[in-house]
Design goal:
Blueprint (H helix, E strand, L loop, with lengths): L4 E7 L5 H14 L4 E5 L5 H12 L6 H25 L3 E5 L2 H11 L4 H12 L6 E6 L2 H8 L11 H17 L4 E5 L4 H19 L3
Parallel strand pairs: 1-3, 1-4, 2-3, 4-5
Bound molecules: thymidine-5'-phosphate (TMP).
Length: 209
């Protein structure tokens, strides 16, 4: 039985979502909420091994193999960390989740979106985020922030990243109740104010202050 809150952070590499996640964790901890910070891929020991392959394997990895690795990491993560933390009433702040698979493997790599949606559902066993924050930033700004040292996913090229960004925007339109769009071209403090307002709104509605 789920009691806590499940919040996911989505967006391009270089969107600043991880910075925002860490800032909001500090804020919520100071307010006395119990938080768990986690991420995909690679939160658990098993996932760390998968992450190493996904981001640094230097030989050809097929698009299907890539897809299944992200999903395998997620299935283990849900059972091993997210579900138990929610059952303990914690606020789970997760850096990337199911929407990343739709945006990157679906819109980016061209895998079938309906199939990915089904596979995501199987991986999470019907456990859905209460809220998803989508940090939208121009591809050019994101690429500048990432810099020259790119991992396997980041090095997928500008056209790929444009498709990912458009995919995220489509996802937000299709799920506007759950996914809130934040303009991440703004400075860190403005983005943080937006993040905090949206999260506190949910907490006040669902957990009370
Ligand atoms: P990050 O942890 O630095 O955000 O990197 C993870 C990379 O993996 C990032 O480029 C996005 C990508 N990714 C996918 O392609 N599909 C997924 O399902 C997830 C969770 C991440």
């Amino acid at each position: 039985m789920k009691k806590g809150l499940f919040i996911t952070f989505e967006g391009a590499d270089g969107s600043g979502k991880t910075t925002q996640l860490n800032k909001i964790k500090t804020f919520l901890d100071e307010k006395g909420y119990e938080t768990v910070v986690t991420r995909e891929p690679g939160a658990l020991d098993f996932g760390k091994k998968i992450r190493e392959i996904l981001l640094h394997y230097d030989k050809n990895l097929s698009d299907k193999a890539e897809m299944f690795l992200f999903l395998a990491d997620r299935a283990q993560h849900i059972e091993g960390l997210i579900k138990p933390s929610l059952e303990q009433g914690k606020i789970v702040l997760c850096d990337r989740h199911t929407d990343s698979t739709i945006a990157y493997q679906g819109y980016g790599r061209g895998q079938d979106i309906n199939l990915l949606t089904l596979l995501n559902d199987i991986a999470v066993n019907n456990l859905k985020p209460d809220l998803t924050l989508l940090y939208d930033v121009s591809v050019e700004t994101a690429q500048k922030r990432v810099g020259d040292e790119k991992d396997r996913m980041e090095a997928s090229g500008i056209e790929f990243h444009k498709k990912v960004r458009n995919g995220y925007i489509q996802l937000q339109k299709d799920n506007s109740e759950r996914i809130k769009l934040i303009d991440a071209n703004n400075d860190i403090e403005t983005v943080y104010e937006n993040t905090k307002n949206i999260i506190m709104d949910l907490i006040n509605k669902r957990l009370g202050v």
